[in-house]
Amino acid sequence: MKKPIIIVLLLFGVLVQGQNKKWTLKECLEYALENNISVKQSELDLELADVDKLTAKGNFLPSLSASSGVSENTGLSFNPVTNNAQTTTFLSATGRINVGYTLFDGLRNFRQLQRADISKIASQYRLDKMKDDISLFVANNYLQVILNKANLEVFRSQNEVTKAQIQRTQELVDAGSLPRGDLLEIKATDASEQQSIINAENSIQISLISLAQLLLIKDYENFDIEDEGYDIVDDGISGKNVSEIVSEAKETRSEIKIAEQNVELAKKDLQISKSANYPTLSAFFGYDTRYTDATSFIQQLDSDNPIITQQIGTVEGTGQAVVGQVPNTNTVVLGADPFVDQLYQNDGISYGLQLNIPILNGFTTKGNIQRSKINLKRSKFQLEQAELDLESTVYQAYVDAKGALKSYEAAKLAVESQELAYDYAKERYDVGLTNAFDFSQSKLRFDNANIELNRAKYDYIFKLKVLELYFGIPATELKF
């Protein structure tokens, strides 16, 4: 009896632990890279590239085909074995094996295999870029949840101060030291803060749902993240020169590698188009055989009376009969030979070479070559544009990170100043030297400063990680 109870308790503990699980950023990134639909689609593109490569390899193998047929003929038909016309019903069967091999096709097969290799590399780079993009989306949404939670903590902690202040003000009002209006002002501040707390809780829930949807997690109610242990971690990227970051980005970023592979693909397409100008030489071999169950007829000498005398003509003018001896034959019906014997008796082989020389095809080949040249030029322009876009993006990310750092440092100074002002206002309010309205305004400015500090902090963290990503640090290795 104890054993089943222990098992139930263990299962219940596992279930509760699963419901209370808090996801770390690393876990979210790994889960997204394994389950995100866009990543899966890019992985399918990589699998298709493998299929294209397999097809390109298959072009080097000979073609092999086999065919067979069975028919029954009634009436006047040609015997497929004797090729004689017969009026009868017979069954016939045919079989054929064909082998073909391309000896030369202008190196098209080699170019197509090279193109398949390049296409696979390009697909891998597109997959890497998709993973980087998804990682940034996840990190941004994750940090948004942390920001909303940090803001909620600010609202709650300040509201605790407000509630304590309400109690203190109530005592002073009852003692006649403060007017009742001050108590009403503090209570109005408390109501406003309660509304801010509710809005902050809603913002957390909405941001959690957005993150869960990005991860394809359906259990919104139990989904939560680990919101502790995340701070500004700078591995020296902020101290690097922007030109160094740009140079590293051009070497490592998938955008450039994809554009470079597209240029290589365009070059191979041009070579494949030009190969249509060369002759094509192929070899072939064929083997065929046939069978029929039709009977055949032959003339055979009569063994008992092999020679007979009969009129063979007349003398012109007199009409006298001319007689002679001729062979005495009888018509004999022969049955069909056995199936296996006929396969050997009726088989045939064909083999040879075939040369196809292109002369004129309505300028189709010339048009394809010109089209490939244009595509090559376009891909080179796209590579140049990708380098310019990446350079502009890195510069923007660099400026954004520097600006976010200054904003964060300014926000810290603002919090320190507002905290001093708030403490001073609180001291004056406690001794009755200022009214509740001025105290509430000071407290509101302090709250807003803390919220702005949270926003500036996580904005700087995100922009710093974007800069590290452009510097070549993998998304799964970013430190927070």
Automatic annotation (TrEMBL):
Keyword tags = Cell outer membrane, Coiled coil, Lipoprotein, Membrane, Transmembrane, Transmembrane beta strand, Transport
Family membership noted in the UniProt record: Belongs to the outer membrane factor (OMF) (TC 1.B.17) family.
Pfam families referenced in this protein's UniProt entry, alphabetically: OEP
Q: What are the coiled-coil residue ranges?
A: 242-269
Q: Where in the cell is it found?
A: Cell outer membrane
- At the top level, the lineage of the source is Bacteria
Q: Where are the transmembrane segments?
A: none
Name of the protein this chain belongs to? RND efflux system, outer membrane lipoprotein CmeC
